[in-house]
Design brief:
The chain has 6 helices and 7 strands; from the N terminus they run ααββββαβααββα. Helices cover 42% and strands 16% of the residues.
Length: 238
């Protein structure tokens, strides 16, 4: 029987709040140094804005029975040489999980399609590499966590553009958050990813929500626990 799942939501909300605090601090440091990047890039070039989420995910694995060790996050690809993933957990030579952490703040019109293309490309490359035996006998488990800014721009519905062929009706009057939700639902449905978490938050970090009740952090943590239980059953514990 699987152990009871700890209550992670409060800690996750703290990690989301930390995301905004670190992001704001990085932007200020860039400004003071006179190196402010174009647009909002100066707020994310420090590379630490989702560290709080990564630490919490590591604790989820520890609680489930496999504590992450080392810092081996560079893995081979199929269409590319390698990829530096955000979280990689291994156990007795097997890859327990690979998790990518992403965020989008503003610039939805410019970056939504790019982010979704990135999701699809990463999952395809990972699955092809696994098929070719790059990760051993046990295929890796792939999780994706996306944090989106909650704002009028991200929730505003958009009519379908005029195209040579009709678009899927699911995108009619869909907001950018809806588009992410559909993309992640379909990636999971097709088996391209194993678990997803889609979270929205305002810039103060005090309003955290989930556009899909199957994509909460609690559901994500439960999927991690199930994966760890499966690995321990195959490879043994202790």
């Amino acid at each position: 029987m699987a152990p009871d799942l700890p209550a992670y939501e409060e800690r996750f909300r703290e990690a989301v709040h930390n995301f905004w605090a670190v992001r704001s601090d990085q932007a200020e440091q860039q400004r003071l140094k006179g190196k402010l990047d174009a647009g909002t890039r100066g707020a994310v070039t420090g590379g630490k804005h989702l560290d709080g989420v990564a630490v919490l995910i590591a604790d989820v694995f520890t609680d489930a029975g496999i504590p992450p060790v080392g810092n081996y996050r560079v893995l081979p690809g199929y269409y590319r040489l390698s990829k530096n993933w955000d979280v990689v957990v291994t156990y007795r030579g097997a890859i327990v999980a690979i998790i990518e952490l992403k965020s989008q703040v503003g610039s939805f019109g410019n970056n939504c399609n790019n982010r979704i293309e990135e999701m699809v490309g990463q999952s395809l490359d990972l699955r092809r590499a696994a098929r070719e035996g790059r990760f051993g006998e046990i295929p890796p488990w792939f999780g994706y966590l996306m944090l989106l800014e909650s704002s009028p721009a991200s929730y505003e519905p958009h009519p379908l553009p005029t195209m040579a062929y009709p678009a899927d009706d699911v995108f009619a009057d869909a907001s950018y958050i809806d588009r992410y939700r559909v993309a992640l639902q379909r990636l999971r449905l097709e088996g391209d990813v194993d678990a997803v978490c889609l979270v929205t938050s305002n810039r103060d970090g005090d309003l955290v929500g989930y556009p899909d009740r199957t994509m909460t952090f609690t559901a994500f943590a439960a999927a991690i626990q199930a994966r760890v239980s499966s690995i321990l059953a195959m490879l043994g514990s202790g």
